[in-house]
Amino acid sequence: MAHDFPLFGDPSGGSHDPAGLSREAVLAAVEARLLTTFGEPSGRAAVTFLGADRIEVLRFGPDAEGLVRYATLGMAAAPMADPTAPVADQVRGPRAELLLTIRGARDTVLRTLATFAATPQVEGLVLAPGGSLDLGSPLWDGAPFTSVLAAEPGGLVPDLELDEPADPVRFLPLLPMTPNEAGWKRVHGAAALEERWLKHGTDLRDADRRGVPLD
To answer: Of 37, 94, 47, which is closest to residue 69 (Cα–Cα)?
Structure first.
């Protein structure tokens, strides 16, 4: 495997949940699913944030169409917990990893993706299709996008079933949004924005695309 991303944080350490479903076992299965789907990664990086477990970002490609895919590895180690729940369930609950597909490598996005993947641990967020994550700054150097919309999973990477009673790992595609698109989505909803993109034939993999007309 290539390792041409900078490496941050401490790669050591492990944890186990009360049911015996270890973090290492879950992430090994997630990585195997990614490699089965995309082949060997062309790069990977690790980032550790205060108060959160280590998150890796794997880069795949570019492929024959020039598409590069970035996938997080670490978000699914534990289920996302409802912040209003009195006690977090260490086994049951939604698990996810994030996928970003763009035309051409934009490796400065790795820290953004790691930040998004750590958000459930740090802020108690439960991310689901139709939800959004806002960085408040460009997703990568020079990007016209500051946030992402989580799309429906399953089309690119199939859900990964885990031993019961754990929920499956879902691989959520991320669709970059300009600030205007994000604001419009907050008012009109994710489905309405996706309809706009479809109506205008928007190439959501274009790393330099302009925002869709919203008039």
So the answer is: 37
